[in-house]
Amino acid sequence: MIKHIAYMAVLAVLLTGCFEKKEEKQPTVPQQPLTVSGIQVQPQDVGLSFEYTGKAQGAKETEVRARVGGILLKRNYTEGSAVQAGQVLFEIDPEPYKIAMDKAKAQLDQRQADLKAAEKQYERVKTLGEKGFSSSKAQDDAEARVLSIKASINVAKAAYEDAKLNYKYTKVTAPISGTTSMEVHSEGSLISTAGENSLLTTITQFDPIYAVFSMSDNELFKLVDMVKKGYVRNPRGTDEVKAKIELTEGSVYEKDGIINFINPMVDKDTGTLKLRAVFENPKQQIIPGQFLRVSLEGLTRQNAIVLPKTAVMQGANGSFVYVVGADGKVAARPVVTGYTTKQGDWIIDEGLQAGEIVVLDNFVKIKPGMPVNVKLQETAQSGQPVQSAETTEE
After folding, report:
1. What is the DSSP letter of 371?
2. CA-CA distance, 234 to 386, in Å (whole number)?
């Protein structure tokens, strides 16, 4: 028994020595820092472009209405054709108005003849009065008659001018040049000057043409604020904002337009402001009522820092990115995002400085304070930012 115990003790010592030797043969390997992709951000000027859905509207859309009633005798144009300002479009029966005009002229002539007679009578009475053969009352009565007839002549002149005007209105002319709509009343219809029965046609001016759309008040105020801060400017040094149109089939309209009106009032129901761009339309490629894609261009975001959207994360306190400091360690950095580019990249308004390195991947593995090796990629190229919000013009 004593021999057996001694044997087991020796065996245990030998086995312990073997394990210790095995452990000594496995040297400790130092942990390598994680390799991540990153970019060194550099400011760049980025052209801004805001896209909206709008609707085409004629530069002028004028209703042609009858100014006198009567039978519509004739339409002197083809429906849907182009007409010129001053062109006679309709003829209303002129006979009743010609008779009224002739009657008014005759009454005017009669009163003018009465005036001549009254003036002669007044001169005779005045002469007799100077010789003592006429009373003062007779002179006063003669003078009063002259003045009364002169007043009635003014009334007769006004009546005559009114009758002439009504007679002129029997020929309905085009107030503007443009394209006519479908006729409202056919020849032979009785036209009045009241309500919808006075409407004869509508003339729309196609060239120039408007693109009308809406922008939220928040978008506009943000843009104004960025202009005040010097972030956004017009490189042409003017207040003009250029506009482009994309037609429904996807093609881009060949002519550029400019914004020529911003409604000063916010629509209380939608919280939007109405804007209008004007375009040349000599070939009538754009038709009123047509839906369009309108983009505003001509503004530049100066000294913009552009990052892929995947590099910007959301935390409890807002947006942040991971940056690598001069010590090679990761730090979380809060940022303020602005517009986005057509490529889907963020423009960073606040939080980053030129030359800083931003991490692009391995976000699950990294944490603040961790050392990393950075594999730098090319700096993101500037794109055309596009406003994400869209408003459809009703």
Report:
1. B
2. 16
Q: Is 358 part of any domain?
A: yes
Widest pairwise Cα distance in the chain = 187
The arithmetic mean of pLDDT across residues 112-128, rounded, is: 89
What are the Cα distances from residue 328, in Å, to 35, 305, 357, 363?
11, 22, 10, 16
With H, G, I as helix, E, B as strand and everything else as coil, classify residue 85: coil
Instruction: Give the separation between CA 53 and CA 200, rounded to whole angstroms.
Output: 32
CATH number at residue 147: 1.10.287
pTM value is 0.65
- Dump pLDDT digits (tens) for 249-277: 778 898 999 888 888 888 888 888 899 99
- 318 and 373: one domain? yes
End-to-end CA distance of the chain: 105
DSSP 215-229: EEHHHHHHHHHHHHH
Torsion of CA 181, 186, 190, 194, to 10 degrees: -10
- Domain that residue 344 falls in: 34-46+303-386
What is the per-residue pLDDT across 176-195, written as a single tens digit (0 to 9) for each? 999 999 889 999 999 998 88
